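Here is one chain, start to finish.
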Amino acid sequence: MAQEPSAIQDTIQRVLERNRLAVLATQRNGQPHASLIAFTPLGGLRFLAFATYRDTLKYESIREDRRVAILIEDREGDARRSDRRLVLTAVGEAIKTPEEDRQAHIVTHLARHPDIERLLSSPDCEFVRVAVHAYQVVGGIDDVRWYAIGESAAT
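Its structure:
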């Protein structure tokens, strides 16, 4: 079932807003690695952000290869359709947060995840921003759609 781009954007935005945890996929020396992260959408659909300590495998892997995938299972679902559960995969690249935006992004992340204040205030914390290139939206085995991020995805 095909959806208009604006409908797919709305679906992705709703899933990002109502879910707080995701699985980050990285790789290092050909070895895949998955990590649970608390994420925050930034800039519409264009960016996803998370915090981590610098001495973690996930951060070391990102330093070697900035390409990542972030899988978000829509555990909350769509209240209008009790049978509707989606899984999003954001494919993108970890990029440097501009220094002038860093504190505002951290404040936004902390507001969404007040339980990680200790991590965010640590001098060993790294705030990672992922520039999303595309989202894969999966509603079932025969319901897989891709949405490429374009200029219209930023709000």
